[in-house]
Task: structure prediction
Amino acid sequence: MSEVFVLDHPLIQHKLTLIRDERTGSKEFRELVEEVAMLMAYEVTVDFPLKEVNINTPVGPVKAKKISGRKVGIVPILRAGLGMVNGMLQLIPTAKVGHVGLYRDPDTLQPVEYYCKLPTDVTERNLIVIDPMLATGGSASAAIQFLKDRGVQSIKLVCLIAAPEGIKKVKEDHDDVNIYTAAVDEKLNDHGYIVPGLGDAGDRLFGTK
Result:
């Protein structure tokens, strides 16, 4: 059963407030998103399994622990998800990075894949799908399904801010995917923006309109 984890660490919440502020420019916005992604990676990986190994310190032998199990893959949803990649890689530098690009068909309003490039061993990895905003949930749900269609079995979804509508959509479509977010906001407005949200994450990251 899918679970929703709200990461309320004080540093995450403080930096999220700065990210939300309309006075925050693109340079600082990008830096803050990267920092929050790094902090969220710490929380998202808390359940990674460990194995005991024997090593020698400069003083003598010791039984120590290393991460075991599947390797990690990070999959940003283009384009806004790119802003979270480097932060994640700060803590998981050996992770491979795939990319999924989607657009919404103007007639059907359904997500359409226009780009997908994944590591060749993607089915052997724990994948972390990242996108700053979980609004309607359509793009996130579609991206997860694209990954499942390619044989991926272990997926987590990480976003900065989520709307109840987006959470509901992902949970209904993928009850095996846990959702990690720094905040669950009030609702979506008539244009599909999260309220109060932070505006358009892609535009604020890259200085576009």
